[in-house]
Amino acid sequence: MDKLASRSLVALALVLSIAVVPIDVVDAAPKTSNGWTTSASAPSTVARGGQIAVTISVRSTSSRRARIFGRIVRADGRRIKTTEWPSEYLTGGRTRTFTMRWNVPGDARLTSYSVRVGISRPAGGPLAHWNPSADSFGVVAPHGGHIPPDQLPKGNPLYADSRVLLTKGPVSGSTGTDSGNFRQSCEFSHMNYDDPIVHPGNPGAAHLHSFFGNTSVNHASTHASLTAAGKKSTCSGAAANLSAYWTPTMMNGARPIAPSGVGVYYKSRNLPASTLANIPRGLKMVAGNMSSLTGQASHIVFWECVGDPYKVNTTIPSCPAGRQLGMLIQFPQCWDGVHLDSPDHISHVRYADWNRGCSVHPRHRVPLPQLTIITHWRVPAGGSGNLRLSSDRPGARRGASGHADYMEGWNRRILARWSQSCLREGRDTTNSLCDGGHLVMPHQFEWYR
Fold first, then answer.
1. Considering the entire predicted model, what is its pTM?
2. pLDDT digit string (tens) for 346-373?
3. Torsion-angle region of residue 3: left (phi > 0), alpha (psi -120 to 50) or beta?
4. For 45-87, where are the E strands, in sequence order?
5. Is 287:276 a contact under the CB 8 Å cutoff?
6. Domain with CATH 2.70.50.60 in the chain
7. 21-142: what CATH class?
8. Tens of pLDDT along 90-108?
9. Closest CA to 232 of 186, 191, 283, 264
10. Sign, Cα dihedral of 437, 441, 447, 448
11. Secondary structure class of 233 (helix, strand, coil)
């Protein structure tokens, strides 16, 4: 190898080794106190070894002279950098901006930092206003962006402590149509950086995921491990459904948000319900494209601000604080009848044509119930403008990378019951097996005793 080629390879290796570190605004709301309003902005991304430029905005209600301080503080309170500007004359009602720069360490070992703004009298007296800007204005996460496990939201263990309660009651759901819908309620279980479909056996190789259903899911999960004795689920009926469902985690800047609720639907959709096959044991599927930068077809990924008039949103819409933001992911319905997975995790299944169903796919003619996962999050203070998915790439539209994964783990007798009584017999129901049985959540126990 000649010297020029060798140098080129070294240069390429150096370029590839520069990891992009997320620097995300957590609380950009202006802070007001003692006649001052301050705010700061941070870039969305920066390379390790690169430089952060933070713009600090200061607005005074009256004209006065003051000294402006900018400070970057580590999560443990240690100061990383303080910048002091000379005494400035601030005209009342006008905004002045100051730029503070910080070189990010090459190893990016800092787990988090906050940007704070201070204002004092010209003589150096006590601070007239100090902007705490929350505990974490931004985050530099170590080693590829991982948040320590003890800082991740936890699911409510109550939802995994139930037993299967198949109670007798009236057969529910309307009949007389060729459309069947079986819905199941689930709750958030846990978060981690694993993906047993895309990165099996490789711990921490994925972006941050939120899991529902089976509580044991990690990088090593298989159908056998999911359905082993003693496993639990956060879906209604508990061990009746030990399937694993997961989506990228919703992030409020750098802070992960636990979902407020999850609905799992199995529907006939536009296929004749009477023709549906049972979901095969051990099926794995991925729906949606985590590499999308601009959004996806609405029949695959759909966003909504609950309570707003109907509108097709392929990325995160504007949604005020306190409302529910929903992401709907729909999986393919046409299976090849042979493979439970494929190298790209999508080639063994196809989406049905609205008019011709699975007949448009010569090798994918087995019709299955369409799995739909609807995840909701409560919009935090400040609205949805700072929300994104953990899988969203720098520069992408927020929520453009929406996707979901599924590993089947149903009790086969129970799956057969709702597949026949709810779907193929054309009923529409939630948490009912449509034959007198019900899948019950822990908080519903007293209702069925």
1. 0.70
2. 999 999 999 999 999 999 999 999 999 9
3. alpha
4. 45-47, 51-60, 64-74, 79-84
5. no
6. 21-142
7. mainly beta
8. 777 778 777 777 665 544 4
9. 186
10. positive
11. strand
